[in-house]
Amino acid sequence: MILTDAEISEVNQYLASKYGQESAFTVWKKKHWGSASNPNGAFGADPDHDGIKNGVEFVFGLDPKAAGKLGLNQFKFDGSKVTVKWMKPDESKLNYEILETDHLSGSNSWTVLSNLNRQQISVSNNFEKVEFTKPSGWLPGGEEKKFIRIRVTQP
User: Structural domains in the chain?
Assistant: First the structure.
């Protein structure tokens, strides 16, 4: 998942307005970096150089000091269904959308998947594990490939 700078700014502004000075993200920064002012803890920073910015690591419950993408998203293919699982802070009150496309050329090729079934698997330590299934199948028209991404926005 890739957030644009504008999306990162939007999420950061929302968290600041919702939680004030002690936002959930500020608490997260203090936990991982010792203080809210440490530049390694900035929302758009990637101090472990794994290609995942801190804002995304926060939203998906990842360790910002452990390089690697394991755990960010899990995809399970089961016949004609695909299941996507992630961890997200239930306190963030952000909107999550799954989008798909069959090609990566052009920014307008992404379509929001609105026919997904959602199931909450568990809630632990202020994070919820959610499972989405696409009952119509991942490649229903016989396409060779699909790409998906997750968009995070404020309500």
Answer: 5-59 (no CATH), 74-153 (2.60.40.10)
